[in-house]
Model the fold of this input.
Amino acid sequence: MKLTQAELKQFDEEGYLFFPSKFSTEEAELLKQAADEVYAMDRQEVWRESSGVARTAFAAHTYNEPFRRLGAHPRLIEPVEQLLDGQVYMHQYKVNAKAAFDGDVWQWHQDYGTWARDDDMPEPRAMNIAVFLDDVTAANGPLLFIPGSHNLGIVDAGHDLETTSYPLWTLDRETVTKLAEDGGCVAPTGPAGSMLLFSSLLVHASPPNISPFGRTIVYLSLCHVDNHIRAFNREEWIAHRDFAPIKPLPDNCLNELIAQQSVAAE
Ligand code: SIN
Ligand code: MN
Done:
């Protein structure tokens, strides 16, 4: 999949691109079922909210087959290779649950702020590409973006070790207010299977989910192979150390699995 000139321009201006229904309902269902299986595991990579429900499953591509395939899916890898101008490796892989009623906040932050400060990633030649595994609506804790904020470089941040179970370098309210006066604040919403790509410098957050609807999103954080991290302060399954370039799989790699599962069920 190649991004058009108009999409490249929009990414430059706004720092993100949204593609509704880029994956089929069947593909999204396969991955949603995989997420439920992963969240049921008792593994160190599966972090929980204080209520005990899953918050994030890290590195799910290393222990789950549908997520392994998604981690090399050409619809995700190719546009990022195009934007970063070369081959990429997997810096981080997260399946975020944002569970019904209990899904907790992600404070305002830039991902590169954490990758630079904690992992010594040399440059922001890295970004996220995400797939919605549930319908994401205004009600169930969507991502909030400040469009254009990726053009400001690294913004000052403080290390928040307390608000949630996941440490993050977060922005203060004055900074967020000033940025949003210029850029506004948007929440890309859409059906399960939608794809969202965003700059590692884009300022973003997400509110708690008190709705009765879960909001599962899987994120690949991809980094140019030349720009790999230099410091290994965090667990290997949070900030990966395998810098080998990802070789994209065929576009039907998830459909193959769906076909195999339906044959097995007959
Ligand atoms: C993130 O910012 O990395 C995740 C936020 C979310 O899933 O709501
Ligand atoms: Mn983030």
